[in-house]
Records
---
Amino acid sequence: MVRPMAERKPLIVGNWKMFHGGASGCELAVELRRSLADIDKVDLVVAPPFTALAAVAHELDGSRIQVAAQNTHFEASGAYTGEVSCQMLLESGCSWTLVGHSERRQHFSDTDESVGLKVKSALAAGLLPIACVGETLEQREAGTTLDVVHRQVDAIIDAIGESSAEPGLTTIAYEPIWAIGTGKVAGPEQAQEVHAAIRARLARDSTQLSEITRILYGGSVKPGNSASLMACTDIDGALVGGASLNAESFANIARSSG
Ligand code: PEP
């Protein structure tokens, strides 16, 4: 299992969503391997769809790019048609998994409770969870951003506390829903404010947890805006959707983050 660095090495994660099956996913993996070969100051992860995981992991074997799933189930096995367990993801070559992405919360009934169970289950299996939080536009306009994000983060902190895993293995991704896939990026100050609040919330549980947990920003990150976001004190990397589907733009984001 990859250990997070005490100094919070930047982490850039590409979420391919429901794009790129095995064939085109492998082509993209080959390009990424070439484009990212010289980048060593940043940890790199890509999250292809389930069906492409094993092939992409095989293509990236021996490179510095690791593979994540986009979701997992919290049970180890059972009659859960259509679901995939953490152990199965490990067997497919994953070392990470996204958990509670807003598209899962919005369309597939993920809740704070199921996100907590998934974080616990991933940690128990030896898979590194990247747990997503973030507010809707309505919540931001109503001034409840921090209440919403605190509630989501508390469920993740509880899950970490209930697991016997060492601190720092869980990454949190702050993704304002109004910024995902919309081209509307949160400004660096807007993002930093929420990241600092998340880190303060982690510190209520443990100073060590708050110091070593990586908090990523996600929401319309592009090569043109990544450097100013990554310069913020509490932003430790990015979860990138659209711009991760092109090797050059993903590499440029990674280059601007190290
Ligand atoms: C995402 O899918 O998590 C995401 C942030 O998407 P985009 O970068 O396209 O906004």
---
Amino acid sequence: MAKPKKRYVCQACGSVSHRWQGQCADCAEWNTLVEDAPATVFSMKHHLSSGGRAVQFVDLDKPGELPRRQPTGLAEFDRALGGGLVPGSAILLGGDPGIGKSTLLLQAAALIAREGHGVVYVSGEEASAQVRMRAARLGLSDAPVKLAAATGVRDILTTLGTMDTPKLMVVDSIQTMHSDTIEGAPGTVSQVRGCAFELIRYAKENGVALVLVGHVTKDGSIAGPRVLEHMVDVVMSFEGERSHQYRILRALKNRFGAVDEIGVFSMAGEGLEEVDNPSMLFLSGRDEPMAGSAVFPAIEGTRPVLVEIQALIVRLQSGATPRRAVVGWDNGRLAMLLAVLESRCGLNFSSAEVYLNVAGGYRLSDPAADLAVAAALISAMTDKPLPPRSVWLGEVSLAGEIRPVAHGSLRLREAAKLGFDCGFGPSDVTGGSSALRYDGLGQLANLVDRIIGNP
Ligand code: TYD
Ligand code: MG
């Protein structure tokens, strides 16, 4: 038999290469390649068509037996989940360190336990005393949550086998878990994958809702193997700027629901509070219009959220390379928009530093925000404020056209309800609101004329 080839697995992104390299060819991280056990290869002669056990097939419409969702008691969490926890499902919750993942899960765990359901909280990051201190601070010490500080998956699953099956199990975090049947330190690709596999299998076999906390890498993706995201049913991210109080819980993948609803929380002294009407949170609340600021009417699931975009342009005297810094929006998208403004509208940003900020720690990914960003940039560039109480929506193409967006008229109606009285965007938005004057722009160049021509 041929000698199995050596494999090296990147511990940051999970990509496989057959040669050791200092830098991963896929994610460009340094010193992350580690030799992995060679995969077992079955010979082609070895047929798999006999000797197995019979598999049960069922009809799609088999009555009964459908799992009922378990509400968490945090309506915003349930909203992001698509209506509560599904028994036997696995949820992966990622987010920056210190953003509030453990706080969120402890609160949800305590509320479910208070309803009389079994809840197990396994912390591999903090000692039990630390978690109990947090519970005391949150006023949740009375909740009958079963708390353990453990990292050995075998110990955890053996112990669970001896007690009543819980409804919810939280594992904080998957990167701290280890299994003695797998080689490697906790946090390595094979350990994370193996531990997640065992925990998910336990959850599926016993109808337990499992929440795994996952660390994130510098660029915000969940650390460890990419396959982790395929193994779980729901991937959620908890976002926000640590210096701001607002936190957004977003489903990035959900096998049981839509991924467009978000949960909004505010981090206070006594833990996370739910925000059920987030529409005006991400506005600065100032009355005077200011150059460089534009409001974008975002829609998150079924709720409108108005978001303020702020731009600052600093002209450089020397020939130094100008900086571009972005908070809350995509860097590449800003570069594209600047290029379109330069080549289609004749504006020159080449000797200017450009700073872009989405207020309140909100993170925008909707392409419909392009026009609001462009308006903020042009307004900052020309030092002219945009019309007061105006909203901006539209996707900008490379040709400089302002393209239609999803839910255009709904966004305008919601903005009108919240006191905005003019809107700018693509030419073909109809059915807005009579309370709001709408101006279709067609081309980005028209916007520049408007702002520059607007005294
Ligand atoms: P934590 O849940 O430990 O974050 P993560 O698990 O995502 O790393 O939250 C840590 C931060 O939350 C910490 O910096 C303090 C803040 N916090 C509050 O502001 N109020 C509170 O009641 C709690 C428990 C935490
Ligand atoms: Mg934590």
---
Amino acid sequence: MKTIDDYNFDGKKALIRVDFNVPLDGDFNVTDTSRIEAAKPTILKVLEDGGSAILMSHLGRPKGKVNPDMSLSHICETVSEIIGVQVKFAGNCVGKVADDAVAELKSGEVLLLENLRFHAEEEAGDTSFAEALAKHGDIYINDAFGTAHRAHASTTIVAQFFPGNKCFGYLLAKEIKAIEKVMQTGEKPVTAILGGAKVSSKITIIENILDKVDNLIIGGGMTYTFVKAKGGSVGDSICEDDKMDLALDILKQAEAKGVKVHIPVDVLAADAFDNNANTQFVEVDKIPDGWQGLDAGPKTLENFKEVILNSKTILWNGPVGVFEMENFAQGTIAIGNYIDEATQKGAFSLVGGGDSVAAVKQFGFEDKVSYVSTGGGAMLESLEGRTLPGIAAILD
Ligand code: AMP
């Protein structure tokens, strides 16, 4: 795997795909700078070698049309402050404006190109557009994990114009290594904690990781499909009746592969999907009609705690309850605390995919786990066992 450390950028122009798709407030101030900070080490390495950096990214969903509200010019000052260099801006990512700005760029300088998605060719993966982008750089660096699952012009197609001169940036390399550590080289016992709303959205992940884990903890809304399939009463809990056979099949496959599956034994049930609903702890397979399980119960958490604290490698995807409502967030917070404790004891813990990162940030676990993935969809696809096109294009 070629990373940026395999290159010296002295006198070179590095074309870097970053993920600067950051949130902006009504006055176009950046409200969360973490994606910019995450790209900083890669940019600094290029500059410190004596090269120049040409940054390209998308922002929002302009759908192929110029939209001043989604101009990357809004973030230019913030990027300058974070990397400590006054960043130049080109009002288009291709064409004369961009070409001239690139031609004038000197060693040690940084140029930010306008939003790639102002051109429909970006998301279409258009080859001529990718070639026009490729002209800007001597070496291509992909450091945007969040878009690595898309075969867009700047994330994938562009790489073909850099044979022998393309590599992963530090951030993308870290993501790849973290996933490898869980899926391939993780120290045993390996435990996956899968929560979230539906079995149907996690099925491919479950099937893929059954070959890689020792323990599978199932929580959240998925629980009830498994419980009902085994003959339990789940009341009004979220349940996919058409996935019950699949749930039983997963349990069978797990048994055949020697994977221990841990399902909640008790839950916090509510008489409405509402933070202020009446609640009671009930056994998971005896939920009365009119009640729905919205969080893990105390016995369940004790069981999960033991499994997590005995694990050496932990993957967490998906909350074990409706964490958006305060009264049903305790289970998810507890899981975060157990992972924190296991990590302190030396386990490697990776959190990522879909909404997991939101939960982790909301409860302040970001610095307590070993690695928080920066890519929602890209992480889910990696866990499903797919090779992401943006990664394959560099390895090619
Ligand atoms: P996902 O994107 O599949 O990881 O699902 C995350 C969502 O699952 C969150 O919005 C949670 O509120 C929801 N969720 C977790 N547990 C439950 C539950 N018991 N009932 C309904 N929704 C749940």
